[in-house]
Amino acid sequence: MCMLTDNEMALRALREAGRNGVHSFVLNKIIGTTRAAARINDLKKRGYQIASQPQLLGNARGSRYFLLASPMEKQKPQYAFDASRQVFVQL
28 lies in which domain range? Predict the structure, then answer.
């Protein structure tokens, strides 16, 4: 049985969420911790480009994270935030 690290679970969730991103509260549940921001920071240090946007979930403040590019990509795609749909779109 292969156990994924918290960082691997966070990266998988970001990839599966695609351009809709994943909310920090949801990411916390996936990872099983309250340290989603720390895992995002770990991934950024490894070269992943991840954007975040503050977002309320109910009355609680959190963030929605978006995987923009991975360090393995030769050409990093360019993204822009579409405020009307609240998603990042590839240019």
Answer: 6-90
Cα 5 from chain centre: 16
C-alpha 18/C-alpha 16 separation (Å) is: 5
Question: Nearest CA to 64 among 32, 31, 28?
Answer: 28
Mean pLDDT along residues 50-59: 90
* pLDDT single digits (tens) 3-33: 888 999 999 999 999 989 999 999 999 998 8
Q: Quick one: which of 24, 30, 17 has its CA closest to 67?
A: 17
**Has residue 28 been placed in a domain?**
yes
* In contact, 65 and 55? CB cutoff 8 Å: no
Residue 28 tokens read as 């916390």
pTM of the model: 0.77
Backbone angles phi, psi at 62, to 5 degrees: -150, -165
CATH of the domain at 62: 1.10.10
